[in-house]
């Protein structure tokens, strides 16, 4: 039996993937400690190591702890999210983990790739460690534009020349823009400077990276490191959840071959004005039955609902998605993977953080439409939904990727890979 530490940022989308791994390791009899915030620690089948030196927060109100994050949208907010939330808590996370390890050592550290303290602590302690990528990979590649640049990879000669120029510019700028921030975090954890221009990539494990998704959802790369393994979706075992009172309406619509459209903004950036209300307006009176989830907010935030719309704070995806024809989402990676695994094509309206990158991958893979904004018009949403409903190749592609997701092995294969590096 190994003593294993898992780190997870206290964001719902991160916790879902990490609890899946924790549950499987617990089932196999290992001694588990999880380092995460107070809000989510009871989700884990493990001993809790609290965020003590790291500044804890509530993911539904980041601005209460980190005022510069403000409303959660826009460039300044995204910059503050990196500086204050990710980098700003990294050294504190490392201090918590190092203190615990010096009381009783760990045989393995498994780190959410944005919980930087796990990487720092593993380096200080010399402990074997692995990364779980809870959002799309951000590795640099000779085949792609830089990860931080909001463009899709070029497919023409001109596009590839553009990507090469962007890579050159980024290599010149990163040492001045990102290195001071990351090196200050490293110094606070008791480490020397990292590799020049290493940035976020330097905080992935050199031993093992467990990546959610499958190659069909990822950009084509000829230089992906051999220690990166795609495992499909990491999700806890399916459990029957509490269903809303209107569930029989959904079943009746499905039995009548009526289209079902699911609209969700996940659990982060959940202002109803951004996507939910435009989607409701777009699909009011449509032949489809529309199922909206608010991410926890009361459904009253949506206002009066048209006759063909049903709403709830949450609906269990594993029960809902097999009945859905199209999912309209703001691009949370966990929700997108759930839809793809259920063979559901997508319409993505992505605004901030990693979500535009998710939207570009969805469009490039052929499994959905990228609306190229986090605040689409009702007209744009309706046009995209009708496009996906009328294009059989989207459904075929969704089924292809669904099969690939299942074949990738999920949490079982991920756990095997993790235990192999000890």
Automatic annotation (TrEMBL):
Erythromycin biosynthesis protein CIII-like C-terminal domain span: 286-405
One GO BP: antibiotic biosynthetic process
Domain of life of the organism encoding this protein: Bacteria
UniProt GO MF annotations: hexosyltransferase activity; UDP-glycosyltransferase activity
Keywords for this protein: Transferase
Gene3D superfamilies assigned: Glycogen Phosphorylase B (3.40.50.2000)
Matches recorded under InterPro entries: EryCIII-like_C, Glycosyltransferase_28, UDP_glucos_trans
Keyword Cell membrane recorded: no
Protein name, as recorded: Glycosyltransferase family 1 protein
Taxonomy of the source species: Bacteria, Bacillati, Actinomycetota, Actinomycetes, Pseudonocardiales
């Amino acid at each position: 039996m190994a003593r294993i530490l898992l780190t997870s940022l206290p964001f719902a989308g991160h916790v879902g993937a990490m609890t899946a791994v924790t549950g499987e390791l617990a089932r196999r009899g290992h001694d588990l400690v999880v380092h995460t915030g107070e809000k989510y620690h009871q989700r884990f089948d493990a001993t809790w190591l609290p965020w003590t030196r790291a500044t804890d927060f509530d993911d539904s109100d980041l601005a209460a702890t980190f005022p510069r994050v403000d409303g959660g949208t826009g460039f300044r907010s995204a910059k503050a999210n990196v500086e204050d939330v990710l980098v700003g808590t990294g050294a504190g996370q490392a201090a918590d983990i190092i203190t615990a390890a010096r009381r009783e050592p760990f045989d393995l550290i498994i780190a959410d790739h944005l919980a930087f303290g796990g990487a720092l602590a593993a380096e200080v302690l010399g402990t074997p460690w692995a990364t779980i990528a809870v959002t799309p990979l951000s590795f640099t590649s000779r085949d792609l534009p830089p990860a931080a640049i909001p463009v899709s990879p070029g497919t023409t000669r001109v596009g590839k020349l553009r990507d090469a120029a962007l890579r050159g510019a980024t290599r010149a700028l990163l040492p001045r823009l990102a290195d001071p921030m990351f090196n200050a975090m490293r110094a606070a954890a008791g480490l020397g400077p990292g590799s020049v221009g290493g940035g976020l990539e330097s905080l992935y494990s050199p031993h093992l990276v467990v990546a959610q998704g499958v190659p069909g959802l990822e950009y084509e790369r000829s230089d992906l490191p051999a220690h990166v393994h795609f495992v499909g979706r990491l999700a806890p075992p399916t459990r029957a959840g509490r269903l809303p009172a209107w569930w029989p309406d959904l079943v009746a619509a499905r039995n009548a071959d009526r289209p079902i459209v699911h609209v969700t903004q996940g659990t982060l950036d959940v202002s109803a004005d951004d996507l939910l209300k435009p989607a409701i307006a777009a699909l009011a009176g449509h032949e489809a039955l529309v199922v909206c989830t608010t991410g926890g907010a009361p459904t009253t935030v949506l206002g009066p609902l048209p006759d063909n719309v049903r709403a709830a704070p949450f609906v269990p995806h594993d029960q809902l998605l097999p009945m859905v024809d199209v999912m309209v989402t703001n691009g949370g990676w966990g929700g997108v993977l759930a839809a793809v695994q259920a063979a559901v094509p997508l319409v993505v309206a992505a605004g901030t953080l990693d979500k535009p990158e998710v939207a570009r991958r969805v469009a490039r893979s052929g499994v959905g439409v990228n609306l190229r904004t986090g605040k689409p018009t009702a007209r744009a949403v309706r046009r995209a939904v009708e496009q996906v409903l009328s294009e059989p190749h989207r459904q075929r592609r969704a089924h292809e990727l669904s099969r690939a997701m299942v074949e990738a092995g999920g949490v079982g294969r991920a756990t095997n890979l993790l235990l192999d590096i000890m």
